Amino acid sequence: MKKNERISAYLETLGAKPHLALDPHYQGFFTCFNRGEYYEAHDVLEQLWLRTKDLNRDFFQGLIQIAGAFVHLQKQFLRPAHAKDGQRLRPAVRLFQLGLRNIEAYGPLHLELDVAALANLCRHHAAEIQASGFTRNPWHPENLPQIVLHNSGS
């Protein structure tokens, strides 16, 4: 099975609520993200990003980068003493910074996402990591960050 077929099948299992204005891949990104399935969120949205040629391309790329930052935090949390996974805080901060550059121009609200709130979440996590000298990971599985879409009716 090809990757795009695998992702499409996975999307069906997420039970995204039909929303004519939003692509199922976009909706699926938030479902995965909010479950702490950051790698899957990245994969789901990547399928949309690869076929997007309009002004939303950078926005989707930024969301993918932010999910990637959380992949790093999650792996570092799970295996802090591991040679590779223990060194993931700096790459996480870099991805937060890249993601912020790609989404901030779309704020404060874009495609029903509170861009300003997501940007604040990313800034907060990056600042906390940097303030600790790249020794403290703010991510914890008992307090997963949640990103909520706001139905604007448009």
How is the topology of this model organized?
Elements lengths: L2 H12 L9 H12 L2 H14 L5 H22 L10 H15 L5 E2 L2 E2 H17 L23
Antiparallel strand pairs: 1-2
Helix pairs in contact: 2-3, 3-4, 4-5, 5-6
What report would you give on this structure?
There is one protein chain. This protein has 154 residues and is mostly helical. It has a single domain, classed as Hyaluronidase domain-like. It has six helices and two strands; from the N terminus they run αααααββα. A two-stranded antiparallel sheet has the order 1-2. Helix 3 packs antiparallel against helix 4 (57-78). The chain is globular, with a radius of gyration of 15 Å. The termini are far apart. The model has no long low-confidence stretch (mean pLDDT 90).
User: Overall 3D geometry?
Assistant: globular
Provide the domain count.
1
Largest sheet: 2 strands, antiparallel
CATH class: Mainly Alpha
How many β-strand stretches? 2
Key descriptive features of the protein:
mainly alpha; Hyaluronidase domain-like; 6 helices; globular
In short:
The chain is mainly α and 154 residues long. Helices cover 60% and strands 3% of the residues.
